[in-house]
Amino acid sequence: MTEVADMEAALSLERFARYVAWAGGDRARALELYALNTRISEALYTPLQVLELALRNRVHTVMSAAHGERWFEADDLLQAPHQREQVEVALAELAKDSKQPLPGRVVAALTFSFWTAMVSPAYEDLWRSTLSPIAAKPDGKRLSRKQLSRPLTPIRLLRNRIAHHEPILHWNTQKHHAAMTEITSWLSPAAAAWCATVDRYPSVYPAGGYHLEPAPDPDIDAE
What are the residues whose beta carbons fall under 8 Å from the beta carbon of 217, sequence distance 6 or more? Predict the structure, then answer.
């Protein structure tokens, strides 16, 4: 049990307590669950990355064609305050590093929350007039904004939990992984096909699933 005790100390009692509760008090099992959480988080990184890049590049391509490569600097286009702040920060960082604020550099510096905001309710009019071509179903039919934005919200939250090394075992990661795969195929069939060749999630997720003991949890959006 020395290994478990040492890891518990390294992870902090508060963080490890979640896993202990899920393991019904069995600390050795709790460490196994922590390792599984790490493996699943790692495996989800690839489909998350491909989805984020596909969304970013499709939005930028379509918006550039309609409003020019520096569309992100047009005050009448960006609807969310945090988006304007991100653009300002990106421009300031480039200036600090003595780099030209080329559109590609600014776009690369904007976070996933910037791009998911582009399909939020505030962009319904822009979706209808400009953005809807960013994605299509396999039969070529366009999607509604809600069809794209609805699954993206929990995916963004899941991404943030993974980025901050938080527990995700209580999330329905199979559901969200399927959504990532489908959305990427809508945005870029080529990107989705490539991702399928390197995506480790299907092999990492336990074939028989796993069991967590009931435990109080503040995450009401874990499904």
Answer: 18, 170
If phi > 0 it is left, if psi is from -120 to 50 it is alpha, else beta; for residue 165 that is left
Residue of 74, 192, 190, 50 whose CA lies nearest to 130 = 74
Mean pLDDT for 6-25 is: 79
Rounded CA-CA distance 180/197 in Å is 15
Q: What is the pTM of this model?
A: 0.90
In Å, how far from its chain's centre is CA 10? 27
Structural domain boundaries of the chain?
Answer: 2-204
Contact 191, 176 (CB under 8 A): no
Q: Is 34 exposed, middle or buried (0-12, 13-18, 19+ CB in 10 A)?
A: buried
55 half-sphere exposure, CB direction, 13 A CA radius: 26
Burial of 1 (0-12, 13-18, 19+ CB in 10 A): exposed
| Bridge partners (DSSP) listed for residue 142 | 136
> Tokens 């039919």, residue?
141
Identify whether the C-beta of residue 183 lies closer than 8 Å to the C-beta of residue 152.
yes
- Greatest CA separation for the chain: 62
Per residue in 181-218, pLDDT (tens digit) is 999 999 999 999 999 999 999 999 999 999 999 865 55
Please name the residues in contact with 97: beta carbons below 8 A apart, sequence gap of 6 or more.
none
Question: Which neighbouring-strand residues pair with 94?
Answer: none
Tokens representing 27?
């600390």
